[in-house]
Amino acid sequence: MRPLKLSRAFTWIEPGPVVLVTTYDGTKYNVMTISWTMVVDFTPKLAITTGDWNYSYAALRRTRECVVAIPGVDLLDRVIGIGTCSGRDTDKFARFNLTAKPAKHVAAPLVGECLANIECKVVDVIRKHQIVVLEGLAAHVNPRRRERRTVHAVGDGTFVVDGRRLDRRTAMASKLPAGL
Amino acid sequence: MRPLKLSRAFTWIEPGPVVLVTTYDGTKYNVMTISWTMVVDFTPKLAITTGDWNYSYAALRRTRECVVAIPGVDLLDRVIGIGTCSGRDTDKFARFNLTAKPAKHVAAPLVGECLANIECKVVDVIRKHQIVVLEGLAAHVNPRRRERRTVHAVGDGTFVVDGRRLDRRTAMASKLPAGL
Fold it and tell me: Which of A10, A139, B83, B84 is the most exposed place for a label (fewest CB within 10 A)?
């Protein structure tokens, strides 16, 4: 993993890929699959929707930190496996053969296989809507990966893989944040 | 536009496409481009991040309703144009040659050129984070469109077009909502 400017971290979330969210409860690492995410500001702040239905939620609320990791499409079947079992009775890092790497600012681990990892602290929990607001503290990218496409959950059991990338930087210039 | 089961509306937002959000302030229609969106529940509730920097925000807060429309990739340059000018001094429906169609439950218009439209009411404004929570009231799809790919903003002026769709319905069965 190589450091990524924090001002670019939001560009991994804005396109809407499925992500993994890791936690550390003081005893063991855990990881969940989340497809309900949103950028909230460029610093970056991110929102995710999660709640008691995810075993990780207790650790997330108690430790107030996590890592948001962005998997490539080659990890899709592991991402689905992670999302359809529970850390309550499964060591998901072992079962899905994921490499937990130390983060800089949080005890939750980076996922070595992922394209990018964003270390986060919880800045707010909006219980009424089950929205958790995160602030990115540091970001990392994996420069050695050949497969760089992410995958988007549709919600009906199908997933859309990234296709072509279109460059509209000139047309978008007035809207891009400084220091990108 | 053909009616879409409301229980399927979230499947247009979960993959993370750029969307258009229309409003009607009592005098004129307006439309803004939003790429910071998130599903909050299956009913559906949706979150978007917006604020005073969008001229539409005043109408959204006052009328407490809008339409979330999902454009195809063929509309990308219009979507960027919509996102880089203001309804304060521009009739965007006229300038970008969009067809405003009557909605069922809200005064904000559907966008005839889009792949899908979700009529929404505002159920909460979380001012601290500039998050607006919407509830879908009705949904519509455009069955006549040939180009069905959506587009995902990266946030750096580039956009990723939908690629292949992978079917994982069997593996995901335990996680899919009833009545989809």
Answer: B84
DSSP line for chain B: -EEE-GGGGGGGTTT---EEEEEE-SS-EEEEEE--EEEEETTTEEEEE--TTSTHHHHHHHH-EEEEEE--GGGHHHHHHHHTS-TTT--HHHHTT--EE--SS-SSPEETTSSEEEEEEEEEEETTTTEEEEEEEEEEE-TT-S----EEE-SSSEEEEEEEEEE-HHHHGGGSPTT-
Average pLDDT, chain A: 97
pLDDT band at B126 (very low <50, low <70, confident <90, very high): very high
Can you give the pTM of this predicted structure? 0.98
Chain A residues with CB-CB distance to B14 below 8 A: 16, 35-36, 152-155
Cβ–Cβ < 8 Å for A25, A60: no
Q: pLDDT value at position B22?
A: 98
Among A35, A77, A168, beta carbon nearest to B80: A168
Task: Identify the pLDDT of residue B104.
Answer: 98
B74-81 average pLDDT score = 98
pLDDT digits (tens, 9 = 90+) for B6-30: 999 999 999 999 999 999 999 999 9
Q: Does A40 touch chain B (CB under 8 A)?
A: yes
Helix H or strand E segment including A152: strand A151-153
Rounded to whole angstroms, the Cα distance separating A58 from A81 reads 20
B173 touches chain A (CB under 8 A): yes
Assess whether pLDDT exceeds 90 at residue A180: no
What distance in Å separates residue A116's CA from the closest CA in chain B?
A: 14
Q: Which of B6, B149, B158 has the most A C-beta neighbours within 10 Å, making it the best mutation to test the interface with A?
A: B158
- Interchain contact A157–B (C-beta under 8 A): yes
- So what's the pLDDT on residue A12? 98
Burial class for A169, CB neighbours closer than 10 Å (0-12, 13-18, 19+): exposed
B129, two tokens: 């984070």
